[in-house]
Amino acid sequence: MIDATYDILAYAYPPLIVFAAALLVLVLPRLLGFAVGTLSLASVVAISLLAPEGAHLTRTFLGFQDIHPFLIDDFTRMMGIALGFLGTFAVIYAYSSEASRKLAAIALAYVASALGAAFAGDWLVLVFMWEIMALTSTLLVWQYGGDAVRAGYRYALAHGIGGSLVLFAVIAQYAAVGSFAMVTEAGETVGFADGIPLLLAVLGIGVNVAFVGFHTWLPDTYPRPHFAASVFLAAFTTKTSAYVLYRAIPEGNLLLAYMGGAMAVYGVVFALLQHDMRALLSYHIQAQLGYMVAGIGIGSAIGIAGAMGHLFNNVLYKSLLFMAVGVVIYRTGENDLYKLGGLWREMPLTAIAFAIGALSITAVPGFSGFISKGMVLDAADPAYYGGSEYQALYWLLFIGAIGTFLSFIKLGYYVFLHGPSDYTVKDSRTGQTVAMFSVGGACVLLGLPAIGWPVFADLLPLVDGISIPDMAINELEPYSDTHLQDALILIVISVIGFKLIRKPLSKMDYSDPSLVVNPTGYYLGRGTMLAITDLYAAVDNAVVSGVKRCYWAGNNPVLAVDETARRLPMVDVPERQHADGGRPSTIHLRAGIGTTVLLLTIILTVIIWLLV
């Protein structure tokens, strides 16, 4: 019986289940459709937990053999649980937030493509799912209309470039190694071959992971669509891409690690300068991705385990924060945090949910972020697991942690605590409350000293491989005195720092390179388009003019010779009459357009056949 159940689960392809639910949402009554969507994502969690390890649904695709669309190992199991769990409550939140069936259907199709990328067992399947993920996420932005349309175009352009680079990387990988395999038969990650395949892969994935300089789409796009759509966007593209980055570079890279450190600092600096609540949270997506990229770049067991743990936690608490901020926008209609204040009296449940998310992302002891962020910091710290080459990286990550505290003290202070509220509004709706506290409960559960670390030890890959001299795995303790002391230092520095910078900070509102990148991209694109169209017009005019001249010369050969002769020096040519009486020459088509196309196709086919 158990074996039969495992066999069934091996054929229960999660992306297909969720995509089918997306189609049903469009035709079923709203409540029933959202219920089907919720159940489809809950089933993803069950399949991820219970499906047998190994590659399933092996097929031949486009002539390539042994293509694995459905791989179950420690990494994909963790991704399925994280994305399925969050997706379940994101659908409930969307229903209670009056999201349309169209939004829900697109969101579920987007989730299905992200799951397809997460469960992919080879690079060929991944690149197909990667492109579908870019398309569906763009539609999720566009469907809201208004400012989201232009932002969606910029988003599509960025992800089109990134997706093309990933596609070229996969092609180069196959040319280099003769295989699309992502893992060996023994379950070890293969990674991209050095040289062109690896370079293209890092650049392409770097767009989705929001490397510094490639990140402008993130704060530009995520604040624009329906606030329920932002919850989905915050969880899937960037986190799936961070996981794929590990698959691309499983052994790490020093430059990649320092890119993560730069992301952590850069993201928090510009988050601090934002007025728009969702823009602030978007910059913090980049900052938190920095910790994941740093851990992957370090490449040690604790670095990778910490990065994956932080990915898992970030799916939860970042979406929770977008949910809480979304409720504020839903009830007040206001996006600017400086125009709010005192809302904890009006919206106590939302304030509590926000507090759980904020305490988790800032890595306060007792909440989930404390364990995973601590693992990444330990991986970089030479006093723990890091080498001396990571000393500067450790300080970059530490500065990023201080900036995270400052950002969420600012956001919570101005939205919920500062002054009396100018709004008399209701708190979150029932579905919104259920979604927020379910996700928030997971953040608390995973942070409890007696529960959180054992759960992580069972859930995260590579934990059993963590070791340093004179320290066994059972002595790895996130709640050690040293870790608690470091957390206390962070809290004290952040509280004092916020008091010092609060007033000057309130007068600043910057959108970093998007102020330059977006206009530059617009004018560069417009100039390129005009240059191409003008060049085409010039070539077209030259060809048409040449054809006309040849036709005229054919009708008037003597006059053509005379015209040529007149251009020569010392030649006297008498005037002659046109053979056609001086009337303009015309060409009369003897065949219809369809016949002409058919004849041209036949002629070109014969020419190509002769050439080949």
UniProtKB/TrEMBL annotation:
It is found in: Cell membrane. Keywords: Cell membrane, Membrane, Oxidoreductase, Transmembrane, Transmembrane helix. InterPro entries: ComplexI-like_HydComp (IPR052175), ND/Mrp_TM (IPR001750). GO terms for molecular function: oxidoreductase activity. Residues 120-380 form the NADH:quinone oxidoreductase/Mrp antiporter transmembrane domain. It is a multi-pass membrane protein. Its EC number is 1.6.5.3. Its main location: membrane. The chain crosses the membrane at residues 6-27, 34-55, 75-96, 103-121, 127-144, 156-176, 196-215, 227-249, 255-273, 285-305, 311-330, 351-372, 392-413, 434-456, 484-501, 591-611. GO terms for cellular component: plasma membrane. PANTHER family: HYDROGENASE-4 COMPONENT F, NADH-UBIQUINONE_PLASTOQUINONE. NCBIfam families: PRK12668.1. This is Monovalent cation/H+ antiporter subunit D. The lineage of its organism: Archaea, Methanobacteriati, Methanobacteriota, Stenosarchaea group, Halobacteria.
